[in-house]
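Appendix B. Raw example, untouched.
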Amino acid sequence: MSPRDHAAEVIGYLKDLDITTGTAFRASSVPADGEIPARAWDLDGLRQRYEFFIAFASQLRDAAAAGRVPPTDALIARTRVMDEWRAFPALDPDLPAELLPGGWPRADARELFIGCYDLLGPLAALRVRQIITRYSPELADRAAYHSSELKLSAAPDPWTSAD
């Protein structure tokens, strides 16, 4: 079951499996009351997960923006926010807006994830550099991080950078 038309893709998979006959049902519209999506997916549970993530990520983003997250905590926090966010693609059916309940929190959660990911990146990379320095100082400056724009950035050293 999918909120998107994947007929061509499914037919390709069936051909790859040498399945030559089958029956498929596809609806071209859904009743406007939103009952069918809510029965097919646990939208209430998903909303609760998004709201929990939003509360956690809001606090984290605010603390990072205020400079209250040291590098030791930034590495752990960035790893946690990434781990929490990675669960959503498996849980969220990515329904079109017209099939979602009002005030759906996906966009807010995504913006908070991006904010945390980008704010914590430099500090988390600095912590990685600190750890590597203990064992192989000549490799420490190679530690880098990715931003949400998929750019690889060197880990800045806030102890030596000029403002």
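End of appendix B.
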